[in-house]
Amino acid sequence: MLDPKLQARIIQEARDFMKHSFKPELEGFESDQDLKKPQPPLQKARMRPKEQAILLPRDFEALELQDNLLELLLRRKSARVYTGEALSLLQLSFLLWATQGVKDIRGKKYATLRTVPSGGARHGFETYLLVQNVQGLQPGKYHYLAVEHQLEFLGRVEDASQTISASLEGQSWAAKASVVFYWSFVPYRCEWRYGVFAHRVALIDAGHVGQNLYLACAALGLGTCAIAAFDGPNCDAIFDLDGDEEFMAYTAPVGTISAMDQTAEKAFYQFVEDEGL
Ligand SMILES: Cc1cc2nc3c(=O)[nH]c(=O)nc-3n(C[C@H](O)[C@H](O)[C@H](O)COP(=O)(O)O)c2cc1C
Fold first, then answer.
1. pTM of the prediction?
2. Whose CA is nearest to atom 10 of ligand 1?
C-alpha cells in the first residue's frame, strides 16, 4: 500500500498543477516567444524520404456520414468490442483529418489551424498509428504528416496484437482494433509560447482531439475508446520517441462494431451491477 502521507502529498501536487491560479514564484516569467527565440517547427520533420509518403484521399463527400449533431451526440459512446473488419483508407483519412487535420496556416508559418482548437494554436501533438486492418495499407506503424495530410510508413510490427495489448497496460480487448491511434506530445512546441503554463493547457487540448475521434467514429458507424491507461515508455519505444522532447500522451483504438455485441460491451461494466454500485 502506498504510504498515506506520500499519497496525500502527490494528490496535493496534482491538484496544484491543475489549478489555474497565479503562483507568486512565477512572477517575472517570460516565454521564449517573449525573448524572441526562434519558433520550433509546426510539426515534426519527415521521418522517411518524401518520395515514400502515402498521400491520403480527401474526397470525404464520398463517405456515408451521419451528420445530424443530435444523433451523433446520442451515438457517441466508448466501444471496446470490435469485429476486426477492415477500415477503408478514406475512413482512416477522415479520422486523421477530424482529429488533427490542418485547414489553414496563420501568418507565414506562425501556427496551424486545425479541425480541433488548441491553446494559442500551438497544436503540440503528433499522431502515430498502429495499423492492423486498413484497405490499401500494409500492417505496421505509421506517422501522420498533418500539414501535407500524408502518412509515413515506419515499419512492420512483430506480433501486433501483443504489442497493442502491452502498450495499453494489458487492455487486451484493444488488440482487435483495425487501427490504434497514439498521440505524442512535443512539449517545446507549446513551451516556446507558454513556458511553465504550457502543460496544463496541452492536457485540455488532448480532450478536443479525443472527442473529435469519438464524433468522427460515430459519424462513420465505427467504435473507439479513449485510453489513458497506457504504458508510456512502452508506447515511446514502439515509435522511437525519446521520452522527453516527445512522449506519448493519449491513445485510442478504433474498430468496426456490431449491434450484436451489445451484451459483450455491457459485460465490461458488469461489476457495477454485481457490486450494487
Ligand atoms: C481521458 C480518458 C481516458 C480513458 N481511459 C480509458 C481506459 O484506459 N480504458 C478504458 O477501458 N476506458 C477508458 N476511457 C473510457 C471511459 O471509461 C468512458 O468514457 C466512460 O466509462 C464513459 O462511457 P462512454 O464514453 O461510453 O460515455 C477513458 C476515457 C477518457 C475520456
1. 0.97
2. 227
